[in-house]
């Protein structure tokens, strides 16, 4: 038991279980607002045996999830494992509006068909992190559609335009003379109303969602509820260690990528970035991570720590056996070996059975997106045929079967026929 106090509050005894829950909540987070209220909620939950309601709202604007998206999902799982109720809220109604967060133009809304397809894929992938048996799945159309025009007007009366314009993206667009549609003001209101409908105790989101999360606190108070606390999580840096993880920047690891690729990509990150990934992505305790960090500081090879992280992440999205196999595959490749299973590709020779240029082979085999990119790879000594580095962009391959390799991870067994 621990005593916590402040000048405003008398000493209060906090149990070890609550202290642990608070530490789990704070791990890796950007902000916990207000922490004192969250502590009270945890204590009340312990005293009554009533789980807290923890909400994560996601608009299914894209169907695929990468590791960056799982930072918030990991936190949900950690809180779920403490016994609290996790609500995976699919914003099928708010997707029709389009989230203006961080945007400098109006976002075109998705069609209901796109939303439905994306939501199904998104939840299936999120279930690789969350425990599906302990996850409450909700759609905000449940309460948003019945609200109707009268309810929408009453809701809009609970917030001022002046407060709305304090939001950074709205303020910047207004100052720049960039159009802001009235319906965009409805998005944070509707997201906040979700918290009212769900009676949320805690809402999670990225740092870019802070305004919307605070709206939930405001509206809950307006509707006579105990306001939720909010927890913002940082944006995860991608493989380059600089930019946030993003498919458009090519510095991502998709959670549905094959085990060998996932394992090798994790091993490619820098030693410095590894510790940030440990904090945000690993399920190891902070004490375990601190102990591992000390070992590395005292001389242990950091690659061993990185291999442990790569195996943990790969096992989460595949299986422990797949992670072990991926490690062996990586070792095999690093020694110049060819994986046991590689794509088989059959290509036609040129007109009259003429040999096919290496650039065309790479493009047609799916190892390079274009002939110009194929030439760039050859210039960088990144192409091998049957183990030998290709240095001649004019190389032509006749009839036969060849093992063609691009970089460390791309292989194809190419058969050229008539």
TrEMBL record:
GO cellular component: cytosol
A GO BP annotation: tyrosyl-tRNA aminoacylation
CDD domains per UniProt: S4 (cd00165), TyrRS_core (cd00805)
Record keywords: Aminoacyl-tRNA synthetase, ATP-binding, Cytoplasm, Ligase, Nucleotide-binding, Protein biosynthesis, RNA-binding
UniProt KW Cytoplasm keyword: yes
Motif 'HIGH' region, residue range(s) on this chain: 60-69
Catalysed reactions, as listed in the record: tRNA(Tyr) + L-tyrosine + ATP = L-tyrosyl-tRNA(Tyr) + AMP + diphosphate + H(+)
Motif 'KMSKS' region, chain ranges: 244-248
Record keyword Protein biosynthesis present: yes
Pfam families named in the record: S4, tRNA-synt_1b
Binding-site positions, ATP: 247
Domain RNA-binding S4, chain residue ranges per copy: 361-400
Documented EC number(s): 6.1.1.1
Top EC group: ligase
MF GO annotations: ATP binding; RNA binding; tyrosine-tRNA ligase activity
Compartments reported by the entry: Cytoplasm
Biological role: Catalyzes the attachment of tyrosine to tRNA(Tyr) in a two-step reaction: tyrosine is first activated by ATP to form Tyr-AMP and then transferred to the acceptor end of tRNA(Tyr).
Similarity-based family: Belongs to the class-I aminoacyl-tRNA synthetase family. TyrS type 2 subfamily.
Subunit architecture: Homodimer.
PANTHER family referenced in this protein's UniProt entry, alphabetically: TYROSINE--TRNA LIGASE, TYROSYL-TRNA SYNTHETASE
Protein name (record): Tyrosine--tRNA ligase
Protein species of origin: Tepidicella xavieri
Gene that this polypeptide is encoded by: tyrS
């Amino acid at each position: 038991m621990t005593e916590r106090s402040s000048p405003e509050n008398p000493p209060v005894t906090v149990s070890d279980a609550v202290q642990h829950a608070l530490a789990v909540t704070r791990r890796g987070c950007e902000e916990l607002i207000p922490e004192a209220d969250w502590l009270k909620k945890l204590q009340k939950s312990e005293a009554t045996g009533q789980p807290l309601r923890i909400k994560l709202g996601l608009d299914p604007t894209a169907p695929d999830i990468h590791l960056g998206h799982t930072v918030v999902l990991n936190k949900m799982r950690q809180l779920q494992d403490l016994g609290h109720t996790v609500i995976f809220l699919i914003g099928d109604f708010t997707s029709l509006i389009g989230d203006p967060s961080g945007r400098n133009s109006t976002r075109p809304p998705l069609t209901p068909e796109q939303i439905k397809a994306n939501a199904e894929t998104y939840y299936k992938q999120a279930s690789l992190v969350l425990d599906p048996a302990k996850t409450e799945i909700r759609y905000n159309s449940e309460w948003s559609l019945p609200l109707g025009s009268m309810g929408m007007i009453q809701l809009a009366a609970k917030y001022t335009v002046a407060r709305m314009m304090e939001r950074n993206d709205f303020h910047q667009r207004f100052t720049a003379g960039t159009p802001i549609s009235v319906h965009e003001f409805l998005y944070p209101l509707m997201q906040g109303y979700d918290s009212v409908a769900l009676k949320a105790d805690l809402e999670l989101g990225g740092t870019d969602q802070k305004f919307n999360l605070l709206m939930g606190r405001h509206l809950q108070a307006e509707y006579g509820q105990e306001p939720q606390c909010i927890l913002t999580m940082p944006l995860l840096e991608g493989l380059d260690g600089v930019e946030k993880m993003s498919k458009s920047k090519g510095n991502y690891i998709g959670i549905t990528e094959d085990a060998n690729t996932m394992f090798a990509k994790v091993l490619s990150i820098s030693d410095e970035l590894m510790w940030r990934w440990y904090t945000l992505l690993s399920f190891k305790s902070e004490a375990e991570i601190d102990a591992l960090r000390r070992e590395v500081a005292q001389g242990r090879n950091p690659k061993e720590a990185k291999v442990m992280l790569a195996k943990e992440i790969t096992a989460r999205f595949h299986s422990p056996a797949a992670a072990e196999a991926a490690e062996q595959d990586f070792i095999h490749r690093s020694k110049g070996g060819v994986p046991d299973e590689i794509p088989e590709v059959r290509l036609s020779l040129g007109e009259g059975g003429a040999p096919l240029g290496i650039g065309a082979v790479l493009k047609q085999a799916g190892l390079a997106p274009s002939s110009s990119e194929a030439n760039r790879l050859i210039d960088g000594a990144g192409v091998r045929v049957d183990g030998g580095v290709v240095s001649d962009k004019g190389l032509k391959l006749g009839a036969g079967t060849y093992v063609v390799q691009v970089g460390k991870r791309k292989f194809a067994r190419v058969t050229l026929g008539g």
